[in-house]
Known about the structure:
Elements: H1 3-11, H2 13-29, H3 37-56, H4 66-90, H5 93-96, H6 110-136, H7 147-171, H8 174-189, H9 204-208, H10 211-224, H11 230-261
Helix pairs in contact: 2-6, 3-4, 3-6, 4-6, 4-7, 4-8, 4-10, 6-7, 7-11, 10-11
Amino acid sequence: MFVAPLRLIWCNRWMVLATFLHDLRQRHGASFFGLAWTVLFPVIFLGLYSLVYNLILQVRIPGKSSFEYTLIIFSGLIPFLGFSEALSSGVSSLADNRSLLKGTIFPVELVAVKSVLVSSVTMLVGLVLLLAILAARGEMQVTQLALPLVLFTQFVFTVGLIWVLSIFNIFFRDIANLVSPLLLFLMLVSPIGYTDEMIPPHMMPIMVVNPLYYMISIYRDLIHFDHIPVGKLAAFGAVSLALFVLGFHLFQRLKTLAADHV
């Protein structure tokens, strides 16, 4: 069951690449800074986040300087930005490309894949920037070699979620309007600016049902703490795999009805 969606993506990889490059040029080509926004966006967002947590709330991690804490924030912020950008564009991507539902040249399932890939560019640039800073500080960890596995798991999770939400958004257009408040809520309850030790016990029930809690914690442990959180990785991997398979087959079943609905 997991093979079918991967086979579809692989067999159409050149088509996905072409549309990915086209969308990337469209997104940044008309702006003054162009592709520089892939660096500016995470840096600006990090500056705002760091301002709130470092200067206003004055959050501190024992044994860590303000700059080290900022880098820890960055390791949680990067994957969240990639996820939020993909979800924001992906949920409405099918409604914005309704003609593809009745076409046969471009498999409509790949619209979500393209959205996630385009949105991942900013995340990858931010991740490279963070690793470069850590390398300059002599803080490279062996566990950072496992980052491609987490990136792939996040890709699978996000594509599966967008398959589900984008196909339902054809029938219930309010879903797209709920994405922004949902992302704001997730940003507040996900551990971007704090570690597990800083989470109050009464908040843990909220954390354990939030997939982003596992995703962000995994990135942070691999990048900063030289630790592979096997339990969290297994949980996030299982949820991602299930969502990927469920989303693909649900999309396949409903896309014909969606074509008649638009």
